[in-house]
């Protein structure tokens, strides 16, 4: 199971600059295997056409996938 929901539209600051972005909340889980769930938040910028920031819940759910928080440090549109 994986659900996505747009929570807000904000300006987010990253090392690559400040961008207008959709804040997208992701809830992911495996109800068939003990009901384990985790969440992640993504800041998607239409200007960059990519996720410019990402953060994951610090829980056991994400341990096996080795997910990490991330921020855009540079970009170039072609």
Give a written overview of the molecule.
The chain has strands at residues 2-14, 17-30, 36-45, 50-56, 70-71. It is mainly β. It has one domain. The model has no long low-confidence stretch (mean pLDDT 87). It is built from no helices and five strands. The protein is elongated. The chain has a five-stranded antiparallel sheet, with no helix packed on it. The termini are far apart.
Write the layout of secondary structure elements.
Layout: E1 2-14, E2 17-30, E3 36-45, E4 50-56, E5 70-71
Antiparallel strand pairs: 1-2, 2-3, 3-4, 4-5
Features:
five-stranded antiparallel sheet; 78 residues; 5 strands
Mean pLDDT across all amino acids: 87
What multimeric state do the chains show? Answer: single chain
What is the structural class? mainly beta
According to DSSP, the number of beta strands is 5
Rg, Å, rounded: 14 Å
What would a concise description of this structure say?
This protein is mostly beta strands and 78 residues long.
């Amino acid at each position: 199971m994986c659900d996505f929901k747009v929570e807000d539209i904000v300006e987010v600051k990253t090392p690559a600059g400040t961008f207008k972005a959709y804040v997208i909340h992701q809830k992911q889980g495996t109800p068939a295997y003990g009901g384990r769930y985790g969440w992640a938040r993504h800041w998607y910028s239409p200007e960059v056409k990519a996720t410019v920031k990402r953060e994951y819940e610090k829980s056991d759910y994400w341990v096996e996938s080795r997910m990490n928080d991330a921020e855009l440090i540079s970009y170039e549109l072609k």
